[in-house]
Amino acid sequence: MSTLTLFADRLCQTLLHSLWQTLAIVIVVSIVARLVQRRAEIAYAVSMAGLVAAVVCMPVTFVLVSPAFSQLDGINMAGVDTAGEAVVANDSATIPSPTIAAGSSGAATNATAEDAADNRAGTPPAAIRSDKSATRTADTATVSAAMTSDQQQAEPKSAFAQFAAVVAPWIAVAYAMGVVMMFIRLCMATINAGRLVRSASALQDDGLIHVVRSITQRWNMRIAPVVAVTQQVVVPQIVGLIRPVILLPASALTGLGSEELMLVLAHEIAHLRRFDLWAAMVQRFAETVLFFNPAMWFLSRRVSELREFCCDELVCHSAASSQKNVRLRYAEA
Predict the structure, then answer these.
(1) 257 three-class SS
(2) For the whole model, what pTM was predicted?
(3) Is 288:244 a contact under the CB 8 Å cutoff?
(4) Where is mean pLDDT largest: 63-72, 141-150, 250-259?
(5) 246: helix, coil or strand?
């Protein structure tokens, strides 16, 4: 088989193995999350580790797996060739060589002596030669039957190997197309986020700017995000890995009080403090590589939910000492 076919064969086996591997990871993560269901931070860390493990399993499996279909075909064909060589060797043993013909006088003398001994023993020479010929014929028939059995066993396996060799490249092409489409989706989301930032207008409210700076100082953060207002988002969100920007919907400035708005800003800053934007990039990469795996999408959705829970807990614990009923007001906001 060609190098491309071998690569496609190994890739297909890797994709098949990733289905049960990711499912096993999801089961383990779910058990741990159930045991620590009141500790969102631990559950999030375990889920994120499971997501990374599911991605790492793919290259490791690709290295460890062997091109089984092609090797199976090679082994079967080798078995047929070996049987054929055995038959040829046996046939050649039945054909007298020139060397033996050249020394026929000595062989004839030995045969005559053996025949004389057999005559003295009371066994006719013709019966002895008939027995030897029958023995050689039986040996040849046994080898031929073994070769036929090997061929019959090799034919269906070889047909399966040929089918796998035809299907595997198409599966590899379909997987590559899916990865490319998911990568384009990720690029489009990045471009859309940049477009939202360019269309937003920076917030000039000194009070909110002071709130943002006080939160970042309380959490010992070196970077204070910029707050911008836009009508193209429905819920607040933070974008930008290098220059983070908090995008607020225009309705948030009029529909929320100062304390509620501060809690909402603290939630977005918590994402920045926890490096959730970088974790989200790892999550998007996992979705791109394992887009075909339902267990991965379940795990990815779980990671997103736990990430929000962790930010909620961080904001509520941070504001609990200065505000009363902070959880109620935070939920209302």
Answers:
(1) coil
(2) 0.69
(3) no
(4) 250-259
(5) strand
Using the structure block, give the residue that is written with the tokens 């959880």.
327
Structure tokens at 32: 């741990």
How crowded is the C-beta side of 258, counted as CA atoms within 13 Å?
8
- Which residue intervals of the chain are DSSP H helices? 3-35, 40-64, 68-94, 98-102, 104-121, 125-199, 206-218, 250-255, 258-273, 276-289, 294-319, 326-332
Strand partners, 246: 227, 238
Average pLDDT of span 149-159: 51
Q: Contact, 274 vs 312, CB < 8 A?
A: no
Q: Which tokens go with 168? A: 């595997």
What class is the 201-332 domain?
A: alpha beta
Token pair, residue 6, equals 């071998």
Question: Within a 13 Å sphere around the CA of 30, how many CA atoms are in the beta-carbon half?
Answer: 12
Cβ atoms of 190 and 26 within 8 Å: the answer is: no
- What value does the CA radius of gyration of the chain take, rounded to a whole number of Å? 38
Integer CA distances (angstroms), 306 to 40, 44, 310, in order: 6, 5, 6
pLDDT at 160 over 50: yes
